[in-house]
Amino acid sequence: MIDVERARRETPGCAHVAHLNNAGAALPPAAVTDAVVGHLRLEERIGGYEAAAAAAAEVENAYPAIARLLGCAPHEVAVVENATRGWDMAFYAFDFHPGDRILTVRTEYASNVIALLQVARRTGAVIEVIETDEHGLPSLDHLAGELERGAALVAVTHVPTHSGLVNPAAEIGALTRAAGVPYLLDACQSVGQLPVDVGEIGCDMLAATGRKFLRGPRGTGFLYVSERLVERLEPPFLDLHAATWTAPDAYEIRPDARRFETWETNYAGKIGLGVAVDYALGWGLDAIEARVTALAEGLRERLRAVPGVTVRDEGKRRCGIVTFTVDGVPATEVRRRLGAAGINTSVSPMEYARFDLAARRLPDLVRASVHYYNTEDELDRLCAALR
Fold it and tell me: What is the pTM of this model?
């Protein structure tokens, strides 16, 4: 169970706004903000290098914390600037050739698809989109058949940015493992609101961010790369942190996932990320999921009762992202009016999810995303404002 009153006491922003934009950037708990600001103050007093040395244990804490969150080893974790950078560092490390098949899903995120298209254009690789079943989920039968034909990579977004559905990540992982095909999972929207265990899912790589449901600082993210795959992947660029200059004409890449990092980093953000992960683990991801999914289902029920509002979420298993449209009112205008009423929401535009929204003939969507510190009253406020 989540102690909502405690969660709200420890989240100063709850006193100022009904924050239903957690899929964009959640409100941080005071512990995270204090950790970040405290380190910046230390840098102010003694210098950046000196502060990093003095806080080495707090900086290093991010790795075992993330490892506990994901069910992996600390040496399989890289801390990076954001989820997109982590995803790109893994994806661009593959050496694709003409005809190589990259399998993805209809709900894939724009940044990932743009990278797929760029690499396909450069290398002659081929992008194949897995068919969708009646629930809006990737067809596992179709994926199995495509894997039998051979593939170089499967790239899937766990939770789409524009929908409450949860893709069957573990079922996909079982198929990719059996076929011996590498599996890259974008867990940007799932980590922090759902339990995510890389061993149970079976992915080889996973990218996620700090600022969303983990409630960490902006400008932080991380990448998991399995030890069974890491030595096969040479990052698209290296520096003196990722590799060692061993001779005038030679270098050696470090053997762990930190080969995907760079030497310069946001030390305050890294400390804050570790604190945010520990804070989430303190609540428990099972308890967080139960609270978040219950709130989201309650919001969907409320929205269906509002005239002119249509809920657009698909899937069999759903999460804390709720998307909807309002008849005759563009999504950006809905967001503006809600914001004027002190309710934070977001918009999922067509260009963020072109495969899916175009296939479903949908316009831009309003996105309300709940977290465990939100209340039933805040959901009622949203629906009253919509009316």
Answer: 0.96
